[in-house]
Task: structure prediction
Amino acid sequence: MSQKNRPLAPPVERLHKQPLSQFKTYAQDVGRETRPLDGQINLLPKDIKLNKNPAILGSYLFRLWQERTDKTKDTLEIKNLNDLSSFMGNSNYETKLYLLALGGIARQLIYSGLDRKLRLTTVLLFDITFIYSEGAEAKYKGGSLDMFGTETLSFIRDEPIESIQIRPNKYWIRALEKQPKGKYNGLGLGSVFITNDSLKSLLDASQMAYKLFNYTASNRPTQKIREAGLIKALGLEEQVKKQGKIRVRKSIASALEELVNMGHLVEHNCEAGLYSFTYSDKIVKHKDHLKE
Result:
């Protein structure tokens, strides 16, 4: 066969790593807060809402952090906020609010220690620094800047950002490290590969489907869990109290079908209060898939 007539090779699937701890945190915490980011001047910690979009932005930032060109620096530098907003499909102002949700409040995080005991701690998911021009510094001395955010992280409401420095928390960074055979590196729960394109596609998922995606992705491809355990893992206790179990069950069932349509779930079932799931390797590339 001549070179000209040879079939084209399939495109190489682009992958990156995401920590299992990140999946577990997003599965439980996304959507638990009830008050929205509504543009008020004095934003309090309880007003910063970790919803699906800020969480997806967090996963995207973690991917970009791994892809940074200068590996001698432990921070990712974003020169143009438009790049993040374009990926998310929203305004720069909304993107800054999402960054507050990721770096303005300590969130619960699950990880393992050297002794392999499971731990829950509170930590900033990302360390984020907004950097402004010399002109902004001059205005600051004059006291004319309108700050918006929390004591931990704020941005200047109407001042263009020159750059943003971003660093994930140490538990997620450590989860990327390759472990020598038979040894344990001491922090995190490890990581799995996921496809680059999946982050964008998750923007179209419902919040419940997103939470379930994160929960299933944080475990082995085939898994089982009791209903009470799933409600706790998804942080749905308050939702069950307000809406009742029947309504929440219907929401979970609908979200599971979404994940089937996305190609993430191969099958799912619920009998006698026991949920079972099997996910494909379309989005998440678990080591068990490689064995197969």
Remarks:
- Residues 34-41 have pLDDT under 50 and may be disordered.
- DSSP finds twelve helices and 13 strands in the chain.
- The chain has two domains: 14-193, 205-292.
- Residues 148 and 154 are 5 Å apart (CA to CA).
